[in-house]
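Onboarding guide, step 5: your first structure request.
Type a short instruction followed by the sequence, for example:

Predict the 3D structure of this protein.
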Amino acid sequence: MTSIQSDAPTWVSFPAHAMPTVDWADHGEAHRAVMRLFNPRLPGESHQRRAAAGVLYRVDLQPDGEPLILVQTRQPVELLPPSARALTVPEARWRIPDGQRIMFRVAVNPLSRRTVKSEGAKRREVVQVVAANDMDAWLTRKIESSVKVEWVVNRVRSVTKRRRGGLGGRATPPQVVVDTVDVVGVVCDSEAFTRLRLEGVGRAKAYGCGLLTAVPVA
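The system replies with structure tokens like these:
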């Protein structure tokens, strides 16, 4: 497998109130707020710039009820909100070796897609939200090539809704289901795990899903 050559990314975190005009429960508005942190002329086609820049974000609810915004990026941040913290992830923390037990958190858009045959032998795609009691198996399938899941510690489901328009209007989904999951597992392919963290997990990565953060545990 080809080794990942790129540098570790930067993490930026700040409390939601640092951008008081943003409704973080509106995924279209949240996406635009995150992208305003960067140069508007990021490289690439307009619909590919976020992915090419490695920009992922997650809205984490803290014990005091205040959401914390965590952004991961491979591009420089040009506009830091008040009280924001920026950290270039040390290689020792970013490159987690095979066999290392970790605790990780990931926000995912839990959708299953299957093709069914309808009248006239036509095929159509059916998209469904994964039931809560099927989430452990769904997540395991998504990441099993890089991490062996030992147990799911916690899982919280939320729904964000588009309220103020969005990217290209109809292109922005009216709602996004987000499962934030805390898991203990063991890295079984370090390079694949690094790639997963860089690229994100699953769909709806422009809307607060995909970001996986991990720490080693004994």
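Each response can be followed by summary notes, for example: Strands lie at 10-15, 56-61, 67-73, 85-88, 101-108, 111-117, 123-129, 147-161, 175-187, 212-216.
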